[in-house]
Specification:
Blueprint (H helix, E strand, L loop, with lengths): L1 E6 L8 E2 L2 E2 L4 H6 L14 H6 L8 E4 L3 H7 L2 H9 L3 E6 L5 E2 L4 E4 L4 E6 L4
Antiparallel strand pairs: 1-5, 2-3, 4-7, 5-8, 6-7
């Protein structure tokens, strides 16, 4: 299946890192690494709800089954902010997703094949 995801081209991380949103605190986004709740009280990463755990293996990522679903998670104004932080829209070929819902797909990023990478400018 094709999965659409917003991620940074260097790290392959999305705008959520563990429980920290990239614009909340860039230092925490880059350094926070225990994968549980953030001491400052940021909300849990949406993936925790699907996975059913407060620990997510580092290769497990989430994306969307369609561009329309991705736009529900990331409205235009949010995509513009993420563009300024260097994030891109990627399309990935995923053979064996872990979880598939109407609006989200959980998968192993290491085994996914990059099909395309585009700007978030628009």
């Amino acid at each position: 299946m094709i999965v659409y995801r917003i991620e940074h081209p260097k790290s392959k991380n999305g705008p959520w890192r563990h429980t920290v949103w990239v614009t909340d605190n860039p230092k925490d986004y880059n350094e926070f690494s225990n994968g549980t709740t953030h001491t400052s009280g940021f909300q849990f990463h949406p993936l925790f709800q699907l996975w059913g755990s407060s620990f997510i293996p580092p290769d497990i990522k989430c994306g969307c089954p369609s561009i329309e679903a991705l736009k529900q998670w990331f409205p235009k104004t949010v995509r513009q902010v993420l563009h300024k932080h260097g994030f891109k829209l990627v399309a990935l070929s995923v053979q064996s997703p872990e979880v598939v819902t109407e609006n989200q797909v959980v998968f192993n990023r290491e085994s996914a094949i990059l099909l395309s990478m585009k700007t978030l400018r628009n």
